[in-house]
Write a structure and sequence with these properties.
about 60 residues
């Protein structure tokens, strides 16, 4: 458990982006019940988040 906590703390940017992308991806894939503005923002976040994940993964 201690190693997992250390990995999350060390890679907090990647973990945060991954969590946001998970929520945005869920909204983009299942847009029923969500307002159109929310769906559009989640699609935009997904595209930008994937790009930023590539940049942040190189951050050491």
């Amino acid at each position: 458990m201690n190693q997992i906590k250390l990995a999350v703390i060390k890679n907090w940017k990647t973990t945060t982006i991954g969590t946001i992308l998970s929520v945005a991806g869920y909204i983009a894939m299942f847009p029923n019940g969500w307002r159109q503005e929310v769906v559009n923002v989640s699609r935009y976040v997904s595209v930008g988040g994937l790009a930023s994940l590539g940049i942040v993964s190189r951050d050491v």
